[in-house]
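User: Study the chain.
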Amino acid sequence: MSKGENFRVDFHTHIIPENFPDFAEKYADDRFPILKHTCSCGAEIYKDGKSFRKIDENAWNPEKRIAEMDAEGVNVQVLSPIPVTFTYWADVEKCLELSKAQNDFIASVVAQYPDRFVGLGTVPLQNSDLAIAEMERAVKELGLIGIEIGSNANGKTLDDPEIQRFLEAAAKMDVPILVHPWATVGVERMPNHNFMYSIGMPSETALAAGSLIFSGILDKFPNLKICFAHGGGSLPYLLPRIDQAWEVWPHIRTTERPPSYYAKKLYYDTLVYDPCNLQFMLGKFGADHIIMGTDYPFMLREAPPGKIVEMLENVSDVEKKQMLGENAIKFLGLSKESFIKESE
């Protein structure tokens, strides 16, 4: 596959070890997700003793992933854990143990194929001390280049002091963060129609982004690099209402400027399925803060990667190149040339 002009990075992909550790058996707790292989090319994730999701071998097999990347014109994938494996609810030492296993696995895949993959790790977000320590290990010892976190930790939003301590450490270390929805708001009201994925996750992401904005951390650390999955969920469309609330209720203000000012400092992936929605985001945030991401290899992913970026009208080729790959490289502190050299 050509590594030239149209360089594409899929910033939002998930991976799981083929031999995912069985903590449900080890700790006699069915809440831990486990992987049951159904054949050489497929498996099911089980949680709470029942099937949670069916997956194919591309969820763990790097060679299969590379073949599909080549077929779809993707140069580099950014690997991150599947959110169900965060397990922030667990005893923190057990969560840390599972985080380390996943980080070690992702680092091994990157080391095997450094020209095709880079990795984001996971941490026990419910405990800032252990989360910071594991972030340091993942970045400094394993060579991962960022951390994926959930949108909340046991109901504590991103303005919680414990989570803020972790984010401050990430800012000081210049570690990029991907925020992915999980344990979504209102999930108890969404047992049907898979609304947890289609409605719950976008709502949860907006709540997470709003909590981060109102925390004031972007005044203290303006260079903190955070990207929100799924186009920021419903945040782009709610910003005028959030700004109005900030204007009319002075007692809720915790920032120097209105929320929309800080929203422009954040990053967002392109997974919104519709060029009109993406065009709306461009108007809100600018082409330099939008990063192509597909949610590979799951059913709700965009295929082929970059499809709606290519469909945009009245957008320059330069801006499309930014969204398709250059923004991801910049956000992660990498260079396109390093991947091209690795592959030669």
Q: What stands out?
A: The radius of gyration is 19 Å.
